[in-house]
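Have a close read of the entry that follows and walk me through the local backbone shapes. See right below:
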Amino acid sequence: MSSKINLLICLFILHLCAAASVRGRKIGIYEIKKGDFSVKITNYGASIISVFLPDKHGKIGDVVLGYDTIKEYKNDTSYFGAALGRVANRIGGAQFTLNGTHYKLVANEGVNMLHGGLKGFSKVVWKVSKYVRHGPSPYITLTYYSADGEEGFPGDVLVSVTYALKDPYKLSVVFKARALNKATPINLSHHPYWNIGGHNTGDVLSQVLQIYASHITPLDNQHIPTGEISPVKNTPYDFLKPHKVGSRINKIQNGYDINYALDSSKKMKPVAIVYDKKSGRVMDIKATAPGVQFYTANFVINTKGKGGYVYQPHSALCLETQGFPDAVNHPNFPSTIVTPGKTNVHSVLYTFSIKKY
């Protein structure tokens, strides 16, 4: 009994310390740099705010959409570059039942929850735990303590994300979440808006995309999965072979916004490859997650971004590696439940290269 009391006291102290540190925590911008390859991150939302690398002519360009000021990130509704959690994507009805207990969450998209609620991980200030700006392996690790009951979720969770630059032109992103005292759903991801031609070069409809997935999880009229896992063959969702992003987009209302069930059974799965002919840039994505959300920035409309450039629909694409949306309400989907003492790890590797022809 005394050990349980001690644990409760420790968790209470941890909660008080975490709350106090968040209130007094400064928001900053941190760069990791390796030659002509650099990434800037803010600890507000653990967000990627720029990724600079050369094109086939050696010209350095920024390949993610974003803003010039932290204030704009605070007011953002598109999740530009942000970390997503405790559960990325949607939970239908903002509710679920786990181990006989029904949990009602904070709805922030009609009756549903999107990307963790009103105060998801994209809207909190993370602690900078480790930071190495230069050298052979520059990286930054950000941490966050998510308290029991936050946005309605059960249990205390310790979360971290590490952004690291690897050779050559590789960006590694590793999310970790440890459930401390209750089973809880965890689905960590992040939301960079990629335009590998350059953030200010217009739409991505001529970029060529390949997704290593032969199935999707169809949606109802509220964008909640129906529970089916359907083949992409003979549909506009088929990117098993490379296609231009815009080649069939007019057959889908507004544009792409759906989860793909990745084919590979490997721990580190091939996810997608994107190619921009004009710049010559290629982005290859691998991840440990079972799914990827392909989204074509359908609702980015007249959004003033970096350098005053105005972003419009289809000005970027998102490839958010993730557990399946609403998995907590679909037993046939891969489980996102993490039990006490266990750590969920989600690794993503972006490899950039150049095609000069």
Summary: DSSP finds two helices and 28 strands in the chain.
